[in-house]
Amino acid sequence: MLDIQGITLEYNNNLVLEVDKLHLQKGEIGCILGPSGSGKSSFLRAISGLLTPSSGRISINQTVVSDGKKHVSVENRQVGMVFQDLCLFPHMTVKDNIAYGLHKFTAQQKAQRIDEVLQLVGLSEFASRYPFELSGGQQQRVAIARAIAPQPQLMLMDEPFSSLDPELREQLASDLRKLLKSLNITALVVTHDQHEAFALADKIAVFDKLRCQQWDTAYKLYHQPASLEVASFIGEGCLILGEVVQNNEITGQIAIDTVLGRLNQYASKPVALKQKVSILVRPDDILLDESSDKTAFVVDKQFRGAHIMYKLKFQDTLLSCLTPSHHNCQVGESFGIKLDIQHLVYFIHD
Amino acid sequence: MTKFSTSKTLAIFIASVLLLPLITIASSIFTPDTQTWQHLLDTVFTDYVINSIVLAMCSAIGAILLGTSTAYLITRYKLPAQLFLQISLLLPLAMPAYIIAYTYTGMFEHSSVIHQFLREFFGQSEQTRILPNIRHLFGAICMLSLVLYPYVFILARAAFQQQHPSLREVSKLAGVSSFRHFIFVELPLARPAILTGAALVMMEALADYGTVAYFGVNTFSTGIYRTWFGMGNRNVASQLSSLLCVFVFLVLVLEKYARKDGRRYVTNQSMTTQLRSLSVVKRVCAFIFCLLIPLVAFYIPLFQLGWWAFFVAEINTQGFVELIKNTFLVAFLSASLLVVLAVFYSSLARQNRSQVWHKLNQILCLGYALPGIVIAVGVIVVAGTFDRQLNYATRYLFDYTPGLVLSGGVGILVFAYSVRYLSVALQNTETGLARVSKQMDEAALSLNPSRWRLFTGIHFPLLRASLLSAMLLVFVDVLKELPATLVLRPFNFNTLAVRAYELATDERLIDAALPALAIVLVGLLPVCLLIYQLQRSSK
Asked: Which of A274, A285, B102, B157 pairs with A92 at a CA distance of 20 to 30 A?
């Protein structure tokens, strides 16, 4: 449905973003996740045609809309867009806002389509209200209704929840997913909030350092991050140093020595003997073990209801550890820990 | 507690004195003078009504056309010398309408340089057709539009700038053309701002006396003057004034409505709009258009005034110094008094939780909306009555008549300016005080309970910039004020504005140039302040 092949975006001759490959099936929801200034919005604008990439190919529905030679204009791409600040027309009623993009419809079709989309977003009784008379969540639904009214092939959403209260966001994110899925709409959503992305997306792209670091499912992003940037952006955790001490090239098994002991695992990527690596340790990879001879000091703690997140110091290494909340230690105390990694993720030092 | 009530009593006393002229005018409607009215209705009254409405409406339309188009070009496109254009477009604010009116009359006169040139070029017969006669209603509309359009420009510019840049992208995605986007989105969104500006223009046009009097157009303001001084009927003059006030209040209602409307139309804007490029031809056209307006409305008249003042006119230095002294004296006195009053009233409204004091301040601000000639009539009636009563009383008590204590001196001018311009000073002190948080007051009072100390130690230092700008704005407004000064000044007391007007009406346009030039140059000061503030806020 949406297919991106190696596009680069430039602004004033400075590279803004590089994306190798990104593909969405019909009806799939993709998320672009990344810190601010990582080029997420520019990427969306390039797909919509508001921005021209300096190289690469974008196809929507098997039609190339942008490559080196060709640039299909914005209005002929049939994409709907929801903007970060919603950008509802404040001087038009809800109905007029939705009708604005339907200028090619006949009056009858128009009225029918407006009714349909208002019903979809559950705002039928607000048709003749003005945006300033609606709550933030309602305004947001109007913006979505306005974007889907012309039946776009692809929906693009730029931080659609950023102007809303955090409590409201989660609800709206799951509502939005249901709506998009029920209409089988392909959508690409930009966000900087990973929980929002996890709730919404089938696949997620992590943008950082001017490139797309990884395009994968949420599970793989968390457990098999492709780069340090992804590892540090998704979820919590820390990096510990290690050295490869065994490397069986036939079985693919390796052993790495760390301060917390030896790790025996299958190699996830080729690595040489004696290679220094950084190992990603998630808080759930460190288990409480009273019998362990490795005791760590509690530097800081955060009560999270069912769990407590500890910041620990073991020798000179800082670790985080998630324990059930009945295991209640005070700052300054220490307890025994052991390392239990299911998916070994390591990054090779240059 | 007692000290508190003294300040409140004082406040109410001063407020009633300031409002007395307005009340006097309003109450005049209860004593109808059928004979004079019959005469007015038979002769000039219809002219007054129609001309005033046409003048106000058409000046507003002219200002909307000039102000909106330039504001749009400046906020949306990359133009050459952008900053120079932006500043130039604001400069006509310094040019009072009556001054540009004399200047163009002089320039288009039979003996003017332009005419001589045209005569040499085209011969005798052609030239009369080329240069227009501007001394009629349409000419007055042109002059007023030219100097008043910045009101629309400033507000429309801010409105266009505040529009969210993505709104345009919504239209692009929907396949809506730029032109339709302008008509259906950008223009409607700027409408409240444009209407607010237009309402201000209409108020200024209704208040104008100098231009219409000079061009011989019969409007309410010239009518009031004539009824008073020509027919000697102060009662009917007051009644005409209250009628004019009705028009002004209608415009005020429009302005209030537009402002309220405008608050809904705010699109929360976080990005700055990218200025679009234009093709070379279009860019040159846009540049010439944006340059032509300040050229006609400011640079050419200023140059002409300078030329006349320094190269043509014989300057009477002593007379000019006297004029400057008089003008600066009244302007300085009024400005100082008004700044003190403004600080007093805005502090009072801040201290007291009751809304009454805010309402009182709003009522005191009404004076600014009223034409100078109306206030002059109100003030002179009040002062005359006061002097008469005072003389009766002293004669009865001490067998002594002090004469025209109030209406014969400079005091009456200061009184009239106070009624009219308190609003200017109040707006400055109120916004200045609003910037000091209430919590800061509480913090200061918790450390030192003296309110006087709060004012001298906290408010005054923080308010200094506001006080300075209040002082400057009132000073220049007083300096430019023509009709009230013309009516109320003591004998042999001339100000720059009055002298320029007198010389111009005596057809001594060239001699009028020096005082006129002085007014424009001093008038540039607050415009510079405005430019500075606008530049800072847009950064």
From this structure: B157
